[in-house]
Specification:
The complex is a heterodimer of chains A (111) and B (111). Chain A has 111 residues and is mainly beta. Chain A contains no helices and eleven strands. Chain B is an all-beta fold. In chain B, the strands form two sheets. In chain B, strands 2, 4, 5, 9, 10 and 11 form a six-stranded mixed beta sheet that branches. Classes of the chains: A mainly beta (111), B mainly beta (111).
Chain lengths: 111, 111
Amino acid sequence: EPEVTQTPSHQVTQMGQEVILRCVPISNHLYFYWYRQILGQKVEFLVSFYNNEISEKSEIFDDQFSVERPDGSNFTLKIRSTKLEDSAMYFCASSSYEKLFFGSGTQLSVL
Amino acid sequence: TQLLEQSPQFLSIQEGENLTVYCNSSSVFSSLQWYRQEPGEGPVLLVTVVTGGEVKKLKRLTFQFGDARKDSSLHITAAQPGDTGLYLCAGVGFGNTPLVFGKGTRLSVIA
């Protein structure tokens, strides 16, 4: 069964460093998303991406965040200057219509 | 802002018991989705309910969408240890609004 793959599974970084989280969505899907889940909190929407541009973004998705689909298969989330409060599990998801398929996530720890 | 409240937050039951978890909102959704999330994994879609009053069954799991499309319930019959996990409801808004998650019900089924 096709699946969304995310790398790395764990990322530890120093505060202020840049991180790039990578995702390979399901190949025939058109919509791509990033969500995050802080430990013990709910899954929160960050951004959605369609037709090579951002279609929606939340208040969380400030200027420190950016997304790219550099080569038609990968979908990346970049955090320019990480803060302690960016520590969370970051999930990529893709969909063709309303059914979302989530990756296994990247656990980001900012020290 | 659309909010989904899930209850109970935690539930620990014996194998063979029945249980119901709830997902409530003051907002109307075009549909509601239920996900199950295992530790260290992304949410996996179980079901989507679309029509007010709709009931869907998935083996021992019964999902109901409220008549007003503001709430939903998940009933598990004869729970098994394999049902242990975090159950999340997520609301699909109208138009291109992103999926909104509840905080989840963490279910533990003890053998």
